[in-house]
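Why do we care about 3D structure at all? Because function follows from shape, and shape follows, mostly, from sequence. That is the central idea of this module. The next example makes it concrete: a single protein chain, its amino acid sequence, and then its structure expressed as tokens.
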Amino acid sequence: MNMKTRQLGEWFLAKDDPPSVNSAAQTTAAVMVSYLIAQLFRLPESYWAPIATLIVIQSTLRAALPVFVRYFAGTAVGAVLGAVMVTYFHQSVWAYGAAVFVVGLLCVALRVERSAYRYASITLAIVMLPYRSTSVPLIALHRFFEVSIGLSVGLAFVALRPKIGLGDPANTTQASSPH
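And the structure:
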């Protein structure tokens, strides 16, 4: 086995935090619940709820709570700014670039965590870049609710994990994030 293959194996294969049947069951339940709740509210792109759930579900409560707050705040800022930008400056890559820069400056001024900036920018892209025939402010509101449902369900499952006897599927001190 060469050095590159060995390094890849060290990055990928679980040593300290392998998955378990309990964590797989809990993750499955959480993503299904978040999706069904979003569907219950007839949100048009309900798949964002389980995506957001996955961001917090694989963590300890201590690690998940700050991720929840950053993602929630970033999503809110990105949705509001995206709706405002498209309403006043129309849909364009230039308006999107300006919005990402404005959010970046805001985060610098407020000394906000980089991940909140990243989540706001992701939400800006989701709201501002695809062409849709529906009102962009309505789309922004939908994304905010879809993501908020997913984050809330994920955090609830993480908080309830010890109470329902599933233990912690993640022993890490930092939440995983696909972004």
